[in-house]
Amino acid sequence: MNRSLFFHIHSALIEYDLYFVEKRNVAGRLGLSSLQKMTVALRMLAYGVSVDHVDEYVRIGESTTLESLTKFVKSMIAIFSDEYLCSPNENDIARLLAIGNSRGFSGMLGSIDCMHWK
Predict the structure, then answer these.
(1) Are 106 and 96 in contact (CB under 8 A)?
(2) With 92 labelled, which of 37, 56, 79, 115 sits at a CA distance of 20 to 30 A?
(3) CB under 8 Å to 21, separation ≥6 — which residues?
(4) 61-90 per-position pLDDT tens digit
(5) Is 109 exposed, middle or buried (0-12, 13-18, 19+ CB in 10 A)?
């Protein structure tokens, strides 16, 4: 992911959900940064790694990692679903079928795991 896209997602995320804004705890120490919370979610989604693996890399506990992942996914859907998660129109379907046909998968829309458009 390029830097500008990462920071575009980051700024949209902290505007949408205050969970991702860095706060001070009762003792006055800074908590986890929004970059740490976003990084663990992206690493788990992109690489399919376990919570333990992310903990070793970013030094965040299991419960915080899972909470960050859940809030990240819900926020991304809420923020970007209208623009990026829409159902394909007729032109999109024709283009996707042509691409699949050129690759030897005639009549297949998307991957096998993603063929259930509404």
Answers:
(1) no
(2) 79
(3) 14, 34
(4) 899 999 999 999 999 999 998 888 778 889
(5) middle
Residues 6+ apart with CB under 8 A from 116: none
Determine the residue type at 109. L
Residue (of 45, 30, 34, 31) closest to 7 by Cα position? 34
Instruction: Please state the length of the chain.
Output: 118
Distance, in Å, from the CA atom of 105 to the CA atom of 54, rounded to the nearest integer, reads 36
DSSP state of 18: G
Q: What is the pLDDT of residues 26-75, one digit of tens each?
A: 898 998 889 999 999 999 999 888 888 887 777 888 999 999 999 999 99
pTM: 0.72
